[in-house]
TrEMBL record, chains A, B:
<dbReference type="InterPro" id="IPR036264">
    <property type="entry name" value="Bact_exopeptidase_dim_dom"/>
</dbReference>
<dbReference type="InterPro" id="IPR051458">
    <property type="entry name" value="Cyt/Met_Dipeptidase"/>
</dbReference>
<feature type="domain" description="Peptidase M20 dimerisation">
    <location>
        <begin position="199"/>
        <end position="358"/>
    </location>
</feature>
<keyword id="KW-0479">Metal-binding</keyword>
<dbReference type="GO" id="GO:0016805">
    <property type="term" value="F:dipeptidase activity"/>
</dbReference>
<keyword id="KW-0645">Protease</keyword>
<keyword id="KW-0378">Hydrolase</keyword>
<protein>
    <submittedName>
        <fullName>Dipeptidase</fullName>
        <ecNumber>3.4.13.-</ecNumber>
    </submittedName>
</protein>
<dbReference type="InterPro" id="IPR002933">
    <property type="entry name" value="Peptidase_M20"/>
</dbReference>
<dbReference type="Pfam" id="PF01546">
    <property type="entry name" value="Peptidase_M20"/>
</dbReference>
<dbReference type="InterPro" id="IPR011650">
    <property type="entry name" value="Peptidase_M20_dimer"/>
</dbReference>
<keyword id="KW-0224">Dipeptidase</keyword>
<dbReference type="Pfam" id="PF07687">
    <property type="entry name" value="M20_dimer"/>
</dbReference>
Length: 462, 462
């Protein structure tokens, strides 16, 4: 596959412009106002798979947004790789913090991306990383170098919990049969430090509602005499962490995997500079659970974060009101062995139990998923490692990610195969944030590395 | 003045329709989008004063919204009453909870208002109660029964702190010279229990901003490792009350007036039914400072309430983000002798001091005002008491209100005269809330009672 570089060089501009077109469609799955755009994106993905050489490409209906499926079966005797990605994106809020409109991609150079980066919502998560696989397939089919069978499954509900994908996978085990699952929806440590994600955190996402009086009240006439739902909500949320930032929910830590000294020492080898980290975020100090390092806090430890809070008067000026209701969106990142449904129940029971008289509390589970760990001695991991060695000249570092891809554990359970997470994004790519971007270098490096995974995985499978 | 009833009977429909027209103008002083409507309302008030017989009516410019001034001087030897009111209203949010549009007044009968009530923002606070005085003046001038001099001062910034009124009063002491100030911007205990407000709480209103990382972050990649501004804000706000709902700000209670057993016993005589109170608000229990009754908590004790809170993703669905900033609007109701500027400074110093490393905090004072107490042995109080006795057949009960009319203490300081608070609204009129209303009975009873105050005040002044 030594002509991959030249193929990329030759088609670079087209590779970029095709991705830019895909990024222009605001496929925000969380907001029903964008329904048509999400569906439009599914069609665009279907077309791109056909052009790349996939057969039997279809848009599979679900109770939510459709799943785009396509395959290229060259020989049933050869191994099959199932590529997963998602075409939906996070909401771009807060829009005002974007330097350019989130759905009008622009290419700009940055310190970390001297070759330029594409700025747009979804550039990295996950349209850009998903599209690397489409272009890698194009290369292998056009140059007749596809060494094994491949199946694509691209969904449109990853950012809202993939609940319909779960159903789809359960009902299509034969169709999705594979020897390894390949996903690019994570990051790597640095441009010159390739890494393979070997662990993911689980997730439990809930929304809480605290109701006090049956109507908004004048804070002068009622202030001090009735429970103020916002004050109560702050008290309840604050009580969820103790003075060591340990989570205060009975049973929450019961199944948490405690890593050995050796494992923690291994993790500590990953290059990390606390000063640069703080500088990049413009914070004076990091903050988290006592007794753990920053890299441990965001990878091997569970968390509880408020993702949104609202209640009362939030407009211009002042309104002296006691709101009838207050709300918060709260997510918990879970580590392997913590069951997200069990944790969601523990949260619900506890949160309802700490509500004082004078308010009523509703806890509405949004979605969730299990954590995941993959062994580094599998054929898949070895193939990925060799691929990176060829393109980066370095052995990739196995890395635990703090993020969640809930469906990975589902795949293992339903399809009985391991997932290899080859991420090419950087933490600084600001996924889920304003000014999300994806480096041209990373994009093309992914297209270059993926076919090598196919090659080595096929070889090692013999 | 025994023909006042017949005059009201004769002009009732017009009195109501004129008020309805005034209520149609959305004079929301807190929201600059309504600037023209606020100004339009000032013009409408000017016209109404002229029609009611006022001389020298003028719209006095300020750095904010104008103050409408008018007067009727019949004899410099006679006492002068200064009537104060405001033509601006609270924002109607949340609009969705209104049964009818806030600025399209409708008249509906309710259990408490069998003769009907006008539903609209400002119906009671304060357009309705202010307009009672305009109609009372009309009656006295038309029937040639005005017993003394009268001056009107109607402002458009009461709901946002009256800062420009303060300047106006300081600069116009001669013009505003008076023997007593008369205000209807409070309530009475019940339809059949007239009361005169003898105390008001002061106010300090601040907005706080907590900033963590310089951008929104992915809660998976950073969750647990950096301070989440929303979690921190909830912790900081929660810490402002102790387990007895005592406010946790050093020095906050230093100047709080402690009432004697006798005074508290006197207060306790006011008719109050806790079960009905809870039922009306649809709450299982009241909530407040340990050791005080509901009526004490909302009248003679200071409070700290969050009036609004926001941060992160508050839209539909789920977004796994750690927000860069979180905000809250917080107001403190103060009791006599607490200085609002001093309390604001105490809050600022304390709130900034409890911010953990990893976040920065800004405290922005909005506005405030002092508390107020008026003696019940003054001529003004006696005149008001007699007026109520004539129209309600009962001696009104002196009552401490939990609300704030910051300018009352300013009037005493600058104009050296006492204020009499003759309120005709009910707590259930939902001022500052959706479905604010004002009873037709209350509106007309006010118009009937006010001229009697003029009569008795003039008599007692001799």
């Amino acid at each position: 596959m030594n002509n991959i570089q030249s193929y990329i060089k030759e088609h670079k501009e087209r590779f970029i412009s095709e991705l830019v077109e895909l990024l222009k469609i605001p496929s925000i799955s969380a907001d029903s106002a964008y329904k048509n755009d999400v569906l439009k994106t599914a069609d665009a993905v279907k077309t791109s798979l056909e052009k790349a050489g996939c057969d039997n490409v279809e848009i599979c209906k679900t109770d939510g947004y459709p799943i785009v499926y396509g395959e290229k079966i060259i020989d049933k005797a050869l191994p099959t790789i199932l590529v997963y990605g998602h075409y939906d994106v996070q909401p771009p809020d807060p829009i005002s913090l974007w330097d350019s409109p989130p759905f009008e991609p622009v290419i700009k150079k940055t310190d970390l991306h001297p070759e330029g980066a594409i700025f747009a919502r979804g550039a990295c998560d996950d349209k850009g990383q998903m599209y690397m696989h489409v272009k890698a397939l194009e290369y292998m089919t056009v140059t007749n170098q596809l060494p094994c069978n491949v199946k694509f499954m691209v969904e449109g509900e990853e950012e809202v919990g993939s609940s319909n994908l779960a159903v789809f996978v359960k009902n299509n085990q034969e169709k999705l049969k594979n020897d390894v699952i390949l996903i690019s929806d994570t990051g790597m440590i640095a441009q010159d430090v390739p890494s393979i994600t070997t662990g993911l955190r689980g997730l439990s996402y809930v929304e809480v509602e605290v109701t006090g009086p049956n109507r908004d009240l004048h804070s002068g006439l009622y202030g001090g005499a009735v429970a103020n739902p916002i004050n109560i909500l702050t008290k309840m949320i604050a009580s969820l962490h103790d003075e060591n930032n340990h989570i205060n929910i009975p049973g929450f830590y019961d199944k948490v995997e405690e890593l050995s000294k050796e494992e923690r020492a291994e993790m500590a080898k990953a290059p990390f500079n606390l000063e640069n980290y703080k500088k990049a975020l413009d914070i004076e100090a990091v903050y988290g659970e006592t007794g753990y390092t920053t890299n441990e806090r965001n990878a091997i430890r569970p968390t509880l974060d408020v993702n949104g809070i609202w209640g009362g008067y939030t407009g211009e000026g002042a309104k002296t009101v006691i709101a009838s209701k207050a709300f918060a969106k709260i997510s918990m990142r879970l580590v392997p062995h913590q069951d997200w449904e069990e944790i969601t129940q523990l949260f619900k029971t506890h949160f309802e139990s700490i509500a004082p008289k004078g308010v009523t509390v509703k806890v509405k589970p949004h979605h969730g998923g299990q954590g995941y760990v993959t062994p580094i001695d599998s054929i898949g991991y070895q193939a990925a490692s060799k691929a990176y060695q060829d393109t980066f000249g370095k052995t990739p570092i196995p890395q635990r990610s703090g993020g969640s891809i809930p469906i990975v554990s589902l795949f293992e359970q339903e399809l009985k195969s391991k997932t290899i997470l080859m991420g090419f994004g950087l933490d600084s790519d600001a996924i889920h944030s304003p000014n999300e971007h994806f480096g041209i270098f990373n994009y093309l490096k992914g297209i270059e590395t993926i076919p090598l995974f196919y090659k080595y995985f096929t070889k090692l499978s013999k």
